[in-house]
Amino acid sequence: MDRLSAEQRHKNMAAIHSKDTKPEMIVRKGLWSKGFRYRLNSPRLPGHPDLVLRKYRTCIFVNGCFWHGHEGCCKIPNTNREFWVAKIKRNQERDIETQKRLAEMGWHCITIWECELKPSKREQTLKSLAFTLNKIWLEEHAVIGKPYLKLEEEDGMLRAAEERE
Ligand SMILES: [Zn+2]
Fold first, then answer.
1. Contact in structure between 1 and 79 (CB atoms under 8 Å)
2. How far is the CA of 104 from the centre of ligand 1 (A)?
3. CA–centroid distance, residue 65 to ligand 1 (Å)
4. Choosing a second label site near 97 at 20 to 30 A (CA), which of 3, 49, 107, 115?
5. Model pTM greater than 0.90?
6. Domains of the chain
7. How much distance in Å is there from the Cα of 22 to the middle of ligand 1?
8. What are 25-44's pLDDT values in tens digits?
9. Cα(44)–Cα(57) distance, rounded to whole angstroms?
10. From ligand 1's centre to the CA of 115, what distance in Å?
11. 24 CA to middle of ligand 1, Å?
12. How far apart (Å, rounded) are the C-alpha atoms in residues 24 and 63?
């Protein structure tokens, strides 16, 4: 057995588990620089989302590919394989449950994967994140019916103007 790599793995896990993991910092800085404001690790919401954007009614989860079992990306070690498979499966089930509960509460959920924040993909990922948030905002505000009401108001004003003529 390779003791060194086991120790290294332990170190990696400790790093991944800390609150200010690097991938999350990339997302935070990226959003902040694009003018988005957020809260961190909101304890009152299911699953304690990494970032919460109230204005966009959106929770963002920055997921490590290993811990959350990113498909085609998560490489499970051969040592203790069954343990890891079971553990990661539990995490995935918890993720699904969390997002289901948040959706029921009217929250949008966005998952950003660690591998999408590699230097070569980072800018594109942050751009499409901003795009998605803006799209959510527009949809949220269109559904409430404001544009429709506004059109009706304008119609009314037009009619009033026509009647005066
Ligand atoms: Zn991945």
1. yes
2. 27
3. 4
4. 115
5. no
6. 6-164 (3.40.960.10)
7. 15
8. 999 999 999 999 999 977 88
9. 14
10. 4
11. 14
12. 8
